[in-house]
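Help! Submission page says 'invalid entity' but I think these are all valid:
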Amino acid sequence: MTLLELVVALPLVAMLLAGLSTMFFLLLHSCWADISDLELQQQLRLAAVAVTQDMMYADRAKIEEDGISLWTRSQSSLPRQIVYRVRDPGGKAILTKNNQPLTGGSIYGDIRIVKFQCRKFNEKTIVLELGGRNAFTGKILVIETAAVLENKRSGGGADE
Amino acid sequence: MSEKGFFLLETIVLGAVLLAGISVLGAYTAGRQVALASQDKMTAAFLAQKYLACRQGEIAMLPAGAYPDKIIVTSVQRNNRDFYVETSLCPAAPGLMKIEVVVRWLPQGKQQQLTLSRLVRSDG
């Protein structure tokens, strides 16, 4: 190999390697972003299922500005209160159930709650809108669902 | 070795490297589509539950003798996707009604649909 060949070949190899490594890191970043968005989807799904399940077994519900309180009966027939609230620790809004976090940051992403709204459809039905934002990708996802208070007959219902 | 041109081995290695690159990109694209499809399906499932619950609540609160609308068709936009929702009611047995919710959406021009149904007491 002559010096001229080396002078021509080295920049070509360098350019090729630079292109390949850029592609690799872009792909890696996109993969990570997708995993992070999936985390957002899963956290919102689990939170929405938890809230609607508790609504379905609630005797009474009280809709508040930043959450909802539900009263259910445990096996011992003692009324039990379940409180869902949006808390804002350090500007990162999370959804809590009886002060325990349901959503939030994990190794996959930093998930913040941007919307938690309950409204009465009628005396027995509550509509829930739950929105989250992935701080890593900026993606916003909103879930809208509803639940019927099946135990309304035992007294109570949805209050605002 | 003194002849000019590529060896078979070199060609095979280059082919394998190119194939690996294309496979990685293909797998990534497919994974992304699956993730988007799962997001649409989740949104549709929760929407279907919403309309199911609303219809059930509506039936439960109806005054005696009143009869709810049989079919309601509506469209909603959620998470950058248009969903078409059709809810229908039909008597299933004495004292029982069947609520059926069909949610349709069109990802990349190909129609997808999800159907949920529930039996409820028609006397509230």
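Support: the input was valid. A stray whitespace character was the problem, and the output above is from the cleaned input. Residues 95 and 122 of chain B are 5 Å apart (CA to CA).
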